[in-house]
Amino acid sequence: MTQQSLKRSITWVQGIALTIGAVLGCGILILPSITANSAGPASLLSWVIMSILAFPIVATLARLAKMIPSAGGITAYVQMAFNANTSAILGWIMLGSIPIGVPIIALTGAQYIDYVFPISNAGVIGIAAVILITSLLLHIKGIELSSKVSVFVICVISLLIIVAVVVSIPYVKLSSFTPFVRNGWSSVGASSVIIFFSFVGWEMITPLAEEFKRPAKDISISLFLGAICISIMYIAISFVTIGTHSYGDKNQIASLSILISKGLGPIGTYITTILAIFISFSAVHANIAGFSRMIYAQAREGHFPSFFAKLHSKFQTPTRVLLVLGGIFSCILIFYGIARPNLEMLLKGPSVIFITSYIFTMLAALKLLKVQDIGWWMAFLSLVICIFVYSFSGWAIFYPVILSFIGGIYILMNKKSSTVINHQLDTPNEK
Asked: Where are the transmembrane segments (predicted)?
C-alpha cells in the first residue's frame, strides 16, 4: 500500500499570511483600548515589550521546524526530545485548544458585529457558523486554495488597518500621552499578561511543514516576517488609540470603529464590521489548518485512533479530522445558543493550553539544541516568559492537567490492547 502524504504547495508569501492569520485575532479590535483604559499611555510600552518578547518564541519554533519538518509540529519536537508518550500527552492536551477556541473566535467576531449593528442571538450564531463552515470546506478542498484565500484575506485586513491608522494620525495629540504612567507600573505588568495572549498561535504554522515547498527556508521566513507585521499592526493601533484617546469604559468595544469614524465619518462603522469578519475568518482558518495536520500526524504515529490517519484520495487533506471538527464546532455553537456562557471565561482554558504547549516545546528545544547555540538561549528566555504568564492562570491551570490524565488513560489502554493482540498473534494455534 502506498504511503499517503500531504501535498507540498505553500510558498513563503502564503506562509506569512497563514502566520498572521493564526496569531492576529479579534483582540486587535478591543485590546488596545482595554489595556489603555487599564494602564493609560504606558500600555503602549506593554505592547512594545510583548512584541519584542514574542521573537524568542518565534526564533525557537523556526529553529525546531527547520530541524524537524513534520506535520506533527510541536508534538514531533517533543517526541524527538523525550519520547512518544510525552508527545502523545501533549497531543491530548492540545485537544482542549482549537476545538473550543476556534468557535469562540468566530463568536467573538460575530458579537463585535452585533455590538455595532445589533442582531439577534441566532444571527450571531449564524455568522459564526458561516465563518466556520467556509473555512472547513476550503480546507477539505486543499491547502493550496486555502492559503491563497488567506493571502487575500490578510491583504484586506492589512489595508483596513492601514486606513484606520492613517485617518487617525491627524487627531493624535501629544497631550494624550501625559502623564505616561498614570496608574502605576503594576498596571503595565498586568496589561502585559493580557497582551501576551495576542501573541499566541505561532505553533499552528509548524504542522504545515510537510506542505511547504521549501520548509527549511520558508517556515522561518514566514514566522519572522509574520511576527514583524503583527507587531507593527498592534503597536500602530495602540499608538493611535492612546493618541486620540479613543478608549474608556464606554468606548472599549467600539474603539477601532471610533478611530476610523474620526477620519471617514459613518462609513468607519461599516469598515470595522468588514474588518471584524475578515479577522475572525483568518484566525479560524489558520488555526484549523495547523490543528488538523497535527491530529493527522498524531494518528499516523498511533497516538490517536487510526481513523484520523487517512487523507482524502483526491485532495490529500485530513478530511476525517476536519469533519469531526465540524461536529465539535456545531456542539459548541449549540451550547452557546442554549447556555449563553461568558466567552471570556471559556477562552481562558484554550489560552492556558497554548501556554502549556509552549512550555513543552521550550523544554524540548533546551534538550535538542546545544548551550552554545543562540537558539538554546532563546528557548530558555521563552520558557521563563511562559512560566511567568502560566502562574497567572488561576483555575484554568487544572485544564491541561485533566486532559493529560485522560490522554494517559487512553495511552495505557491502547498499549494494553496492543499487547493482548500481539500475544494472541505470537501464540501458536493448538491442534
From this structure: 12-32, 44-65, 86-109, 115-138, 150-172, 184-202, 223-247, 267-290, 321-339, 351-369, 374-390, 396-413
Residue tagged 493527522 (cell numbers): 296
Q: Which three cell numbers stand for residue 408?
A: 494517559
Lowest mean pLDDT among 283-287, 342-346, 418-422: 418-422
Measured in residues, the chain has a length of 431
Per-residue confidence (pLDDT) for residue 2, from 0 to 100: 46
Give the helix/strand (H/E) hosting 411: helix 398-426
Q: How many angstroms separate the CA atoms of 404 and 93, rounded?
A: 6
Cβ count within 10 A of residue 408: 14
State the Cα–Cα distance between residues 409 and 320, nearest whole angstrom: 24
Handedness of CA 318, 321, 323, 329 (dihedral sign): negative
Q: Which amino acid appears at position 394 of this protein?
A: G
All structural domains of the chain, each given as residue ranges with its CATH number in brackets, are 12-426 (1.20.1740.10)
What is the grid cell recorded at 398? 487544572
Q: Is 10 helix (H, G, I), strand (E, B) or coil?
A: strand
Residue 242: CB atoms within 10 A of its CB come to: 26
Alpha carbon distance 162, 260 (integer Å): 10
Read off the DSSP letter of residue 429.
P
**Residue-by-residue DSSP string for 200-243:** --GGGTGGGGGGBSSHHHHHHHHHHHHHHHHHHHHHHHHHHHHH
Given phi > 0 = left and psi -120 to 50 = alpha, else beta, which region is 265? left
pLDDT for 102 beyond 90: yes
CA dist 327 and 322 (Å) reads 9
d(CA 83, CA 91): 13
Question: Rounded CA gap, 34 and 214, in Å?
Answer: 40
pLDDT tens digits for range 44-60: 999 998 899 899 999 99
Report pTM: 0.87
- What is the DSSP-derived secondary structure letter of residue 396? G
